[in-house]
Amino acid sequence: MKHINEKGVTLIEVVISLAVLAFGILSLMLLYTSGIRGVSKAQTLTRKTNRATAQIEEIMSMKYSKIKVNSCKTKTIQNITMKTCWTITPNSPIKNTKKVKVDISFENNNTGTISYDYIKPYHK
């Protein structure tokens, strides 16, 4: 009996190879898009954190007697509207301190609210 020396690749092997390759490429594309979403969420959180920090630093730099206002500011940067609200609670948690609470939310999308609480002590 003669052995036939087969050289080359059959059509089924080519189709299976292409299917495996396509599956791998599709998986990488899905990974890439989820990475982009993660970066977008991180940017949003960074913007909120920076805005809250700036507002707290502004309030904390004020004299103790001048910190009386509960208010909100709205600011639009790159088509994103941020609402910053702060609440001042005198004599909280102890006498001669003021509790400063800052809340940041984005009005253009539903990414939640970030909140910070600080205590401003009385200094003569």
Description:
There is one protein chain. With 124 residues, the protein is an alpha+beta fold. It has a single domain (11-121), classed as Pantoate--beta-alanine Ligase, Chain: A,domain 2 (2-Layer Sandwich). Helix content is 40%, strand content 30%. It has one helix and four strands; from the N terminus they run αββββ. The chain has one helix at 11-60; strands at 71-77, 80-90, 97-106, 113-121. The chain has a four-stranded antiparallel sheet with strand order 1-2-3-4, with helices on one face. The longest helix has 50 residues, at 11-60. The radius of gyration is 29 Å and the shape is rod-shaped. The protein starts with 10 loop residues before the first helix and ends with a strand. The model has no long low-confidence stretch (mean pLDDT 82).
Topology overview:
Elements lengths: L10 H50 L10 E7 L2 E11 L6 E10 L6 E9 L3
Antiparallel strand pairs: 1-2, 2-3, 3-4
Q: Give the oligomer, counting copies of the same chain as homo and different chains as hetero.
A: single chain
Question: Total helix count?
Answer: 1
In CATH terms, what is the architecture? 2-Layer Sandwich
Largest sheet: 4 strands, antiparallel
Element order, helices and strands? HEEEE
pLDDT < 50 stretches: none
Strand content: 25-35%
Class by helix and strand content? alpha+beta
The percentage helix is 40-55%
Shape: rod-shaped
Instruction: Report strand order across the widest sheet.
Output: 1-2-3-4
CATH topology-level fold name: Pantoate--beta-alanine Ligase, Chain: A,domain 2
| Total domain units | 1
- Calculate the terminal CA-CA distance, rounded to whole Å: 108 Å
Average pLDDT works out at: 82
